[in-house]
Amino acid sequence: MLVASAVFLPSCDKGEGPALGGKAPDFTLSDIRGNMVSLSEHKGKVVLVEFWATWCAPCRESIPSVNNIFEKYRGRGLMVLGISIDRGADARSEVDAFVKAQHIAYPVLLGAGQVEQIYGVRSIPMGYLIDKDGVVVNRHVGLMTGLAGNLSVEIEKLL
Predict the structure, then answer these.
(1) Are 158 and 130 in contact (CB under 8 A)?
(2) DSSP symbol at 135
(3) Domain count across the chain
(4) Which of 27, 70, 107, 142 gives a 20 to 30 Å CA spacing to 60?
């Protein structure tokens, strides 16, 4: 329990973003292919919303763990939605190339600023674990040692 608590401690931001135990705000964003994807499409599934960027070294380190979690649990009802906060005219192509190079298997969406603001993203990587009813169960901020193991414990409880 202590290890799980250490991994999912709130960040030092001003407490912005959805509260643990509260409803996760819905969003609709474009994926890297131009398709629109909404959080609400995944009601009835456990969802990990993971904010990151291609230029973020800790994000690059955590992505394989998130990818492994997705591969392990997607057949049991887990969805991972990666949200890139990359900006600029070439963001879509840069993120697409990064996704291919990293072999990311989960859907990757392009952030639009508003979603990051609503979710209180002040540091990346940052993720929210959302249960089947759309309730925020946990949040992790920064590169965490043992992220995959701790997420597995949380996800197992929710599936």
Answers:
(1) no
(2) B
(3) 1
(4) 27
